[in-house]
Amino acid sequence: MASLLDELLLTMDGETGQYEKLISLNGEKKDSIIYKKLDVLEAITVQEQAIADALLKLEEKRARILKSIATVMGHDGEQVTVSWMISNLSNQPVEQKKLSDAKDKLVKAADDVQVLNFQTQNLLKQAIEMVEFDITLLKSAKQAPLTSNYGRDAETTGSLLGNRGFDAKQ
Question: In terms of Cα–Cα distance, which of 88, 78, 72, 75 is closest to 7?
């Protein structure tokens, strides 16, 4: 049982470490979005995918360990969670404290990543809006309105305004 608990703690510490890697990449990611460095953003995305793959493997490992612990404790078939483990380790306060601390660190790191992802999502939305604004501005600059010049037959001549939006001559 002790070796399974140690393995569970190592797995949870590994998950926390992976989340901390995601947090450290976030600053670079924001800069690459702000300064439109797409090659850097692409490299960061590849790193994030590798971290996500590692997190998935660690999560699966944690689930297997918890299932093994449930079997050892005679709770086979029940859904055993880390919180359940913490509450059932009341007669082992040292192990209970270690597991509780590991859970708190893991939850905090995951919450921090979630907040940073939300901020990055908003930043990307703003960047997209800015690009759409730039495109609209460029389109409208090329499509100047027709002037109100009329020809001899009282119809507009169809001439366009100049490239400048206003005439500075007085």
Answer: 72
- The pLDDT tens digits for 58-96 are 999 999 999 998 888 888 777 889 999 999 888 999 999
**118-144 in b/e burial notation, b at 16+ Cβ within 10 A?**
eeeeeeeeeeeeeeeeeeeeeeeeeee
HSE on the CB side for 161, CA within 13 Å? 14
Measure the CA dihedral 77/78/81/85, to 10°.
-100
Residue segments in the chain with a per-residue pLDDT below the cut of 70: 141-151, 154, 156-170
Q: Which domains does the chain have, with CATH numbers?
A: 2-141 (1.20.58)
Q: Which residues contact 164 (CB under 8 A, 6 or more apart)?
A: none
For residue 14, count CB atoms less than 10 angstroms from its CB and return exposed for 0-12, middle for 13-18, buried for 19 or more.
middle
What is the 8-class DSSP label of residue 161? Answer: P
